[in-house]
Each structure stands twice: as C-alpha cells, then as structure tokens.
Amino acid sequence: MQDSQTAKLTVGSNTYEFPIETATTGEKAIDIGKLRARTGLVTLDDGLANTAACKSAITYIDGEKGILQYRGIPIETLAEQSTFTETAYLIIYGELPTRRQMSDFAQKVLKNASLHEGMMHFFDGGFPFTAHPMAILSSLLNSVGCYYPYMVTNHREQDLEHFNDAAALLISKVRTIAAMAYRMKNGLPMIYPKRNLGYSQNFLHMMFSEPYHEYYPNDEISKALDLILLLHGDHEQNCSTSTVRTVASSGANLFSSVSAGVSALWGPLHGGANQQVIQMLQHIHDAGIKVEDYVEGAKKGQYRLMGFGHRLYKTYDPRAVILRSAAGRVLDVIKTRDPLLDIARHLEEKARSDSYFIERNLYPNVDFYSGLILKAIGIPIDMFTVMFAIGRMPGWIAHWYEVASQVKGRITRPRQIYTGYTTRGYVKMRNRDWENSSDYELEDNKGAQSKE
Ligand code: ACO
After folding, report:
1. pLDDT band at 272 (very low <50, low <70, confident <90, very high)
2. Is residue 304 part of a domain?
3. Ligand 1, atom 29, residue with closest C-alpha
C-alpha cells in the first residue's frame, strides 16, 4: 500500500495519500497531520505505542537490536570512556565538549551547587519527615526557579537567552536538593558541597559526610554511581520525557517542565520500578519464596516481575547488560555478598528460559540491577527513583530545549475517542434515585434544594 514517498489509505471508496517521513536511521513514519482534515478520521493508539509524537535528534534506540545511542554515540562507548558530566554536555548540546567547553560547564555546575539560603527553610519544617523525596524533588525543582526570576519568564526568547545558565544550574541543584532531602528526612545536619570533588563524589559527600567526620568515597563506588547516572542520561520519548515535552509545548519554562518530569518518573511502571525491584527481591528473600514459584505467580498475572519488560526493548536493555556486571564489581569492592544479587540472577535465569517471558520478549530492564548497586553504595530505597531523576536531568533539559527552540512548535493536544454519554438532560434533585448515597444526599440536598 505504499511507495517510497507516500502511503495510501483507503476508506470506503476513497483513497488518500499521505507523506512518509524517513528517520536518519531509516525508520519510516506516515505523516497523518492532515488525516482528520482530509478524511474526518483520527487515529487511536493506546499508550501511543505506535505513534512518533515528535522529531528528535537526541537519542536513538533500536529496541529489537538492543541499541541505545546518545547523539549517535553508543551507550557502551560512553559507559566505558565518558563521565556523567561530559555525557550530560553531549546530550544537552549535541557534541562532545572541547577541553575549554568542558571546563566552563563543570565550573558552572560547581558554582551552582549550593542552594539559596531561602530554600533551606523548606528543609526546616517545610516538609514532614515522612515526605517522599520524589515529592520534595518535584516541588523544589519548580521552586528553585523562583530564585532566578530572569530565567523563568515564560517568554520563550527570554527563557532561551538564559538557557545555558539554567541548564548547568539544574544539573547541579537537582543533586543538592536530592542529598538535602535525604539529610532532612533522617534528621541530619545539611552538608554543603566541596570545590575539589567531582559530580558523583560531591553527591556522596553531601549524603554521607558528617560535620565531625568526612566521608571519602571509594573510587570504584563513585565511578559506579557516575555510571548509573550516565546510563540514565536520556531515553527518548519515555513517559517522563514526553511529559516534559508536553509541558514545554505550552510555553512553560524549563524549571516547571522538569518538575513535571519528576512527577511522571515517580510511578512504579516507570522510574519507580527500581525501588520496586529491591522490594520484590527482599520479599522473595524474607518470605523464603522459591524463585520458580515467584516466576509462576508473575505468569498467572498475580503481579509483574519488576525490572522486566520494556515498551521498546524486545531484547536485553543494553543498560541492564552494563549494570549487571557493574553490580558484581561493586559488591566485590565493598566485600559484601548480597543475597538479593543471587536471587536477581536466579530470577533472570528462570524468566529467560520460560516461554511466557520468551514469547513476550520480556528481558531485564535498566531498573533490574541498578537498585542492587545503589543499595550496595548505601543509598536508601526511597532515594532510588531520585537517583534516576538526577541522571535523567540532562535528557529532560535537552528535550525542553528541542521543543522551546522550534520556530513553528505546536502545543501538544491529542484527540480522544469519547466513550461517555451522548447529550442528555439535567435531572432535578427530587427526581434522582438516592437510595445508595444517603450521606451525600443529606449534605448535598441543602444546597441543591435552595436552588430549586
Ligand atoms: N512481568 C510479567 N508480565 C509482564 C511484564 C512483567 N514485568 N511486563 C509485561 N508483561 C506482560 C503483560 O502482562 C502482557 O501480557 P499479555 O500479552 O498476556 O497481556 C505483555 O507482557 C505486554 O505487556 P504490556 O503491559 O502491554 O507492555 P507495555 O509495553 O505496555 O509495558 C512496562 C511496559 C510498563 C515496562 C511493563 O513491561 C512493566 O510493567 N514492567 C514492570 C515494571 C518495570 O520494570 N518498569 C520499568 C520500565 S523501564 C523504565 O521506565 C526506566
């Protein structure tokens, strides 16, 4: 039904032609932008699983082959040769930095590491100790913009003028806010960043140092953390990034857009899965459940095997492959044998040889092994998704920029297939059946009667 340039759609006796767009990597998409205008039809695509919602030049994924590239560079190469800060620059600006550019960027990140003293009040009774750090992070990323009003004008040209500063500021502040959320929740004094430490080292310092005892992270540990952040740098149109792009499409500023991204990331089907994986492994361990039995329960649909499956990857998530060996290395370094790693490996082995998982192409995703490394480093479980958010910040920033700098960008506003009532009349209160809602009736009748 299609030649190289157009696709033909036949509806009844009419045939329509639509252009085909080709990606630099060869994938093709039918441009249905004029579909409704020409045919009166819209498309219905649950979860947008089959829809390219935008054009983007940041990240490429081939889920069938297990390929992930940031700006064309394979994730395996970056994992081996780069650092989180350098990769953040690559993701945001599209090129690897020169020595000078890297130094300027790192200086900007360092300069922005501490928070405005006004923000410290949020940690001093502004949130209850029970607050989830993701809620704190989302709120404070939006709030941080209030301290830089010239960066948060919601006038595109002005916001873009300050983009370089805002980008470095967010890369830096997300780390500080995360560490301070942890300190507050644990009743610990705030620890300020240090000039002589790298990005991941500084995070560990702010998390684990004490005023009377400095924490010196082992080199392997800070490298492992840096690797985790780098591997989370971007992942094209995932749920949180699509959220950032959607918010950005309304003209909203960078700070509010990434804050929305944090909220979207929090869910257990997205970034929240890394926390759920450890809880699942711990549950299997503590309750003495046989791995084989746990896999059976997942097959029966009683629960999902957390850290398994991915919308795009139909083979191993390349990030999981890297983290699988990193997990072993980190545990060796800290000379700990975590029984959860054995359970994870056993679970993977069982699931990977089971027809249910084979037929559905369910492989371990990035969250399956990252939690084990974070746990070994000493990061508490409710901070796991926060770690994901720190790593994903460059991606959100880059996607915001891509949307904000479009000359003819359109607001994201999908259509729907309406499944509710068609037009009907208003029924007066006295004519409604209230049999099953006695409490509500008593409350509401007062107001309602007075209107009649
Ligand atoms: N355990 C057991 N069965 C699963 C799993 C799983 N983890 N994931 C998918 N399936 C099954 C579904 O039940 C469904 O089976 P069916 O065809 O018999 O109905 C089939 O595989 C397809 O599943 P969908 O939910 O349609 O796949 P979708 O692409 O919508 O969801 C998702 C992807 C959300 C990642 C899903 O695999 C999942 O819930 N995984 C567990 C949570 C998780 O690890 N999330 C992190 C994802 S990575 C990230 O966001 C960083």
Report:
1. confident
2. yes
3. 311
